[in-house]
Amino acid sequence: xxxxxxxxxxxxxxxxxxxxxxxxxxxxxxxxxxxxxxxxxxxxxxxxxxxxxxxxxxxxxxxxxxxxxxxxxxxxxxxxxxxxxxxxxxxxxxxxxxxxxxxxxxxxxxxxxxxxxxxxxxxxxxxxxxxxxxxxxxxxxxxxxxxxxxxxxxxxxxxxxxxxxxxxxxxxxxxxxxxxxxxxxxxxxxxxxxxxxxxxxxxxxxxxxxxxxxxxxxxxxxxxxxxxxxxxxxxxxxxxxxxxxxxxxxxxxxxxxxxxxxxxxxxxxxxxxxxxxxxxxxxxxxxxxxxxxxxxxx
Length: 298
Known about the structure:
alpha+beta, Arc Repressor Mutant, subunit A, 38% helix
C-alpha cells in the first residue's frame, strides 16, 4: 500500500472531529486525487465497501449498508479553517461541510462523494505548505484521534528530522473540536492523547513524546518532541476490526433495526444542536452520548 495522502496545512490545522471511519472515508477520496489534478464540486469520488475492507482490514456482514451509514453521518460534519486567505487578513475563519452530495448505487455496492467547494482548494492543486504521508501508516490505527495527531505532527515536523512544538491545552482541544470538554487533564490524556500517541508511535514513521508545562500548579500546555524515523513495518493486508460502525457482530434483524434507530437519533440530535448553536453534549443526555459512542458515531 503506497498511496499518498496530501493535504494543505490549513486543513490539517483546522478544527474538526470525525469518527475513525469517517476519517477513513475522507482519506480514501483524497488518495484518488492525482498530482496536479484539478477537481470541482462536480468531481465525484467512488467508494465501495471493498475499499475499506482491503485498505483498512475491516470486515462487515452488511458492508454496503454500513458504508452508507458512515457517509450519511459524514454529510453532516463540518470543519473550521482558520485564516484561510492570506490576501484577506480580516477573514478570521471559514466553516464548511466536508462533502455536499452523495450518490447511492446500491446495485453495485458503491457510493460517490462530492467535496464542498470551500474544501477543494485545500486538497487539490496544492501549492505552498502542505502535508504528505503514506496511507499505509494510518491504515492500522484504531483510535479516533490517532490520524489527527499524526497529521498534526507531520505538519509541525515539516522537513526537519526533529522538532519541539509547544501548544496550550486550549489550542490543542480547539484543533480536535473538543473545546469545553475533558476539564480533567487525566481524562484528556487517558481518552484522547495517550491513545492517539500509542497509534502514532506503534504504526508510523514518527516517534513522539511530550512533557507537561505548568502555570503555577496547573498543567496548561504540552511540549511535544517529534522525530522522524525509519518507516514502521508494513502493516498486514487484513487487520482485525475494532470499529463497531463497520465491524458489527453478526446481527439479528432486531439488532440491525436498533443500530438504524441510533443513527436516526444521532442525525436528529446533530441537526438540533446546530440549529440551537450548541454542542452535541449540551443538547443530549449523558445516556444518549454513551449510546452514540458505543456505535462509533462520536
